[in-house]
Write a structure and sequence with these properties.
By secondary structure, this protein is of the alpha+beta class. The chain has helices at 2-30, 163-169, 188-197, 201-206, 291-295, and strands at residues 32-38, 41-42, 48-53, 69-73, 81-85, 90-95, 104-109, 121-122, 126-130, 136-140, 146-147, 152-157, 170-174, 181-185, 211-216, 225-230, 250-256, 262-266, 281-290, 298-301, 304-306, 318-324, 335-337. The strands form five sheets. The protein has an eight-stranded mixed beta sheet with strand order 10-12-15-14-13-16-17-11. The chain has a five-stranded mixed beta sheet with strand order 5-6-3-1-8. A hairpin with a 4-residue loop joins strand 5 (81-85) and strand 6 (90-95).
C-alpha cells in the first residue's frame, strides 16, 4: 500500500513539474523580447536611440501605435525629440540635436506596452548611456595644412570644457623637440576678432566654453612638423562636484610654412645665357607681401630705375609675385633692390 502511494505521489509531482515547464515555455513564447538597444554605455556622438524587437511589435504604419519606451536625460533640454516606428520591429527616438558632452540618459521600458498580438515586453526595465567628455567636432585650420609660426587654433567641441582640464591635457608636439610644448588659451579682443572672421561669434556667445582658441606656448620653427594633441582628461565643468572627462586622445597634424624667401627668374636662350631683354623678369616670394612693400621694390642698372608692374587692387592686397615688364636694358648689369625693413605680410624677414 505504501509503495503504491509512493508511486502515485511521484507520478503526480512529475506531472506537475511537466505542467509548470509547459506553462513557463508557453509564457516565454508569448513574451515580446527586446533584441537590442543602441546606444549603451559611453558613446561620443549621439543623435538617436534605437530599440529593436525579436518579432513584430506593432502593425507598421499604425499612427496610434504607442511608444515602447521613454528617454530622459540629466539635461532636460537634451531630452527633447520625437519617437517613431520605422518598421514593425524597430522604434527610433530622434533627438532634436546631438547630445552635448557630459550628459547621462536613461531608456525606461514602458511596462504597459503590448504588441499588436497582445504580448508584453519582458527583460530589462531600463538601459543607460552617456555622451562622455567633450571631444573635438571641428578644428581650424584643418589638419594637413601649412600653419604660421605663431598659429592660433580654433576648436569647436561637443560640449563645454573647463580651462584647467584643457591646460593640463592639450599640448603641442614639435619636430626636433623632445618634450611637450604646453598650450595657452587665447581670450579677449584677439579671440573675439578671430571668431568674428570665422563666423563663430554667435555660437561662442551662446556657449563660450564650447569654442576654444589656443596657441602653442612658443614660436614654431619654420618647416617643422607639428602635432596638436587633444588628450584624454579634458573634462566638462563640474556640476554638483561632478565632471565628465574625455577618454580618447586625438591628434591633429600640421607642418609649419617654409621660411620667407625670394626667387628670381627670367627667360634665357639656355641655362648659361643672360636674360632676354625682350622678356619680363619675375621675382616670386614664398609668402605674400603687402602692396606697399611691393611698390618699394626696384630694378636698377646704372642711372636707370624700373618699378614693378602691379595689378590694380586695394592698398592692403597681398602680393606674392612681382613682374618687371620688357623691354629691359640690353647688355646691362641689373640688380633688384628691396626697400628698407622689407618683411612679408606676417612681419617675417627674408631668409
Amino acid at each position: 500500500m505504501k509503495n503504491t502511494q509512493h508511486r502515485f505521489t511521484k507520478r503526480w509531482l512529475t506531472a506537475c513539474a511537466l505542467s509548470a515547464s509547459a506553462f513557463l515555455a508557453c509564457t516565454a513564447a508569448q513574451a515580446l523580447q527586446i533584441s537590442s538597444v543602441s546606444p549603451q554605455g559611453e558613446v561620443a556622438q549621439i543623435r538617436q536611440v534605437v530599440i529593436k524587437f525579436d518579432e513584430a511589435a506593432v502593425n507598421f504604419g499604425d499612427p496610434r501605435a504607442p511608444a515602447p519606451a521613454s528617454v530622459s536625460c540629466s539635461d532636460a533640454q537634451s531630452s527633447k525629440g520625437n519617437g517613431r516606428w520605422t518598421s514593425e520591429r524597430e522604434w527610433v527616438f530622434e533627438l532634436s540635436e546631438d547630445l552635448p558632452a557630459g550628459v547621462r540618459c536613461a531608456v525606461a521600458v514602458n511596462s504597459g506596452f503590448q504588441s499588436a498580438s497582445g504580448r508584453r515586453i519582458t527583460g530589462a526595465n531600463s538601459y543607460a548611456f552617456n555622451s562622455g567628455g567633450p571631444f573635438v567636432k571641428r578644428i581650424e585650420p584643418s589638419p594637413g595644412q601649412r600653419i604660421d609660426e605663431e598659429q592660433m587654433f580654433v576648436l569647436q567641441l561637443s560640449g563645454a570644457a573647463s580651462a584647467p582640464s584643457l591646460a593640463s591635457n592639450v599640448w603641442c608636439g614639435v619636430e626636433g623637440l623632445g618634450e611637450r610644448v604646453p598650450i595657452k588659451l587665447i581670450e579677449g579682443n584677439i579671440r573675439a576678432e578671430l571668431l568674428k572672421n570665422l563666423g563663430l561669434t554667435k555660437a561662442a556667445a551662446s556657449d563660450p566654453q564650447r569654442i576654444v582658441v589656443l596657441q602653442c606656448n612658443r614660436r614654431l620653427s619654420a618647416d617643422a612638423r607639428v602635432v596638436l594633441l587633444y588628450g584624454a582628461g579634458v573634462a566638462t565643468p563640474a556640476v554638483n562636484g561632478v565632471s565628465v572627462a574625455n577618454t580618447v586622445t586625438k591628434s591633429f597634424n600640421y607642418r609649419v610654412r617654409e621660411p620667407f624667401s625670394a626667387s628670381f627668374s627670367c627667360e634665357r636662350e639656355n641655362a648659361q645665357a643672360a636674360c632676354l631683354p625682350i622678356m619680363p623678369i619675375n621675382l616670386r616670394f614664398s609668402s605674400p607681401i603687402t602692396r606697399k612693400m611691393a611698390q618699394g621694390i626696384a630694378l636698377k642698372s646704372g642711372s636707370i630705375t624700373l618699378k614693378p608692374t602691379l595689378e590694380e587692387g586695394e592698398a592692403d592686397d597681398a602680393i606674392q609675385n612681382v613682374v618687371f615688364k620688357a623691354p629691359l636694358p640690353e647688355e646691362a648689369e641689373l640688380r633688384i633692390e628691396l626697400p628698407s625693413g622689407f618683411v612679408d605680410a606676417s612681419g617675417r624677414t627674408l631668409r
